[in-house]
Design a protein that fits this description.
Elements lengths: L6 E10 L4 H11 L3 E10 L3 E10 L2 H13 L3 E7 L1 H6 L15 H7 L3 H11 L4 H4 L5 E6 L16 H15 L2 E6 L5 H11 L5 E4 L6 H12 L4 E3 H21 L8 E4 L3 H14 L4 E3 L3 H9 L3 E2 L2 H7 L2 E4 L17 E4 L9 H6 L4 E4 L9 H11 L6 H13 L13 H17 L13
Parallel strand pairs: 5-6, 5-7, 7-8, 9-10, 9-12, 10-11, 12-13, 13-14
Antiparallel strand pairs: 1-3, 1-4, 2-3
Helix pairs in contact: 7-15, 8-9, 10-11, 10-16, 15-17, 16-17
């Protein structure tokens, strides 16, 4: 959407109560390139009116220009400029709340001492009862070292906390799992693995988040081998799941037969390599991949892919997926007629969809259309409900198909806030676990 890459601020303005004052101010802001959102009246007086005006700016220098316009208006007094995003984050976005009201000694005895002792002893005798009598069955660790955060890069563990809180909010809101951010203040692979293995008994699953390549590959693989609960690096597999779903829908909308086309993946970092692997597994054919990092090319080759360069991929592949983080990397003249182009880097894609379509692509989309929010909540919900020890490639593909099948006609992917979509993803993952005989849970009635 147009507002996604803009800076949003709320101007609290005291305006002279006179016809045309508000209209003149809004016209000035619009003439200066400012986009306007909600306008709310806070106080209506005899001589002045106080209003909150939501303003969108292109960048901080543009924002300064818009602020100056307000300050220079003799009929307007700028009382405050508020960043409502920061206000939402005041005190953090998540909290631990008691499920029971403790307002009497008898209730205290039940939830704590002495009543809790009996529960502890039962779990000691049969550790499996922890799944029934504790919160472990819905706690998911969201683990990060802050080394590859969104489009921000290596900002450190503590600075990544708002992102981890956001993931926790989504997980609880969409599927009812309790995400617990775990910030690890080291980039040493051995220390990260040791830390997660040590704390793993607290959780029903481990979500790895914003850990840079190539360390993320080793960390995930070692954890999958050492713990008995699902481990998934969302930047890899959550992205790959949604890309596969989007690609299936794009092919349906454009009439392209994916079984008879060649796939190219430009950028072989965490997301790119995972996308290439999923396409190879699902379609049963090699994927060409390009990356300026020679080690990344070697990892693709070991996975069964074909190292290539940008020009070769653009000339020979009917489907091109780009995850490089390099805006404008794909030039319009590189586009071949009938190609499907998914340029997924945010906030600025390798090529804008309208440019790709104008150059001859049959379908094009950017990263704003392919959001991994559609993947990870349902994948973890299904894996936790089935009590699997691992999330397999088949489960991920089942999740992708569930997303694709839940998409309304004419859309690339469904609404990421539709809880029914996440429920279908969870059921698809759990059903596949049953088919593979990997489920360790009683799922009677789960699919009703």
């Amino acid at each position: 959407m147009w507002w996604e890459n803009k800076i949003m601020r709320t101007f609290r303005c005291q305006l002279k109560q006179s016809p045309g004052v508000l209209g003149h101010l809004l016209a000035e802001l619009g003439d200066a390139g400012g986009f306007l959102g909600e306008i709310k009246t806070i106080h209506m007086g005899r001589s002045v009116v106080i209003r909150d005006i939501v303003v969108f700016a292109d960048n901080f220098s543009h924002l300064d220009k818009l602020i100056k316009i307000v300050n220079d208006n003799p009929d307007v007094n700028l009382l405050e400029v508020r960043d409502e995003v920061l206000e939402v984050h005041q005190g953090g976005k998540i909290a631990v709340r008691s499920r029971y009201k403790i307002d009497s000694l008898s209730q205290l005895r039940r939830v704590y001492t002495p009543g809790v002792a009996e529960v502890c002893l039962r779990i000691k005798e049969d550790p499996h009862l922890a799944w029934r009598f504790t919160a472990i069955n819905h706690l998911v660790a969201i683990v990060s070292d802050g080394s590859a955060v969104l489009g921000l890069g290596d900002i450190g563990a503590v600075a990544s906390m708002p992102v981890m809180e956001g993931k926790a909010c989504l997980m609880e809101t969409l599927v009812g799992l309790s995400g617990i951010p775990i910030l690890i203040n080291t980039k040493d692979v051995d220390e990260i693995v040791k830390t997660v293995v040590t704390i793993a008994p607290t959780f029903s699953a481990i979500q790895l988040e914003d850990i840079s390549a190539p360390r993320c590959f080793e960390i995930e693989e070692r954890l999958r081998q050492q713990v008995d609960i699902p481990v998934m690096h969302d930047d890899q597999h959550g992205t790959a799941v949604v890309v596969l779903a989007a690609l299936l829908n794009a092919a349906k909308m454009s009439g392209v037969d994916l079984k008879s086309t060649y796939f190219g993946q430009i950028g072989l970092g965490a997301a790119g390599l995972a996308v290439a692997k999923m396409l190879m597994h699902y379609f049963g054919q090699s994927v060409k991949g390009a990356d300026i990092n020679e080690d990344a090319q070697k990892r693709l080759a070991r996975a069964g892919g074909i190292p290539a360069d940008l020009e070769e991929i653009m000339q020979s592949c009917g489907v091109v997926i780009a995850t490089t983080g390099v805006p404008g990397l794909i030039k319009p003249e590189m586009i071949q007629p009938g190609q499907i182009i998914l340029a997924l880097s945010n906030p600025n894609p390798e090529i804008k969809p309208d440019e790709a379509l104008a150059a001859g692509a049959v379908f094009a989309a950017d990263g704003r259309s392919v959001n991994n929010i559609l993947g990870f909540p349902g994948i973890f919900r299904g894996a936790v409900d089935a009590k699997v020890s691992d999330i397999t490639e088949e489960m991920l593909e089942a999740a992708a198909l569930a997303i694709a099948e839940s998409t309304p006609p004419g859309e690339l992917v469904p609404n990421p806030l539709d809880r029914q979509v996440h429920r279908r993803v969870a059921q698809a993952v759990a059903r596949k676990a049953l088919e593979l005989r990997l489920s360790r849970a009683d799922l009677s009635g789960y699919f009703d």
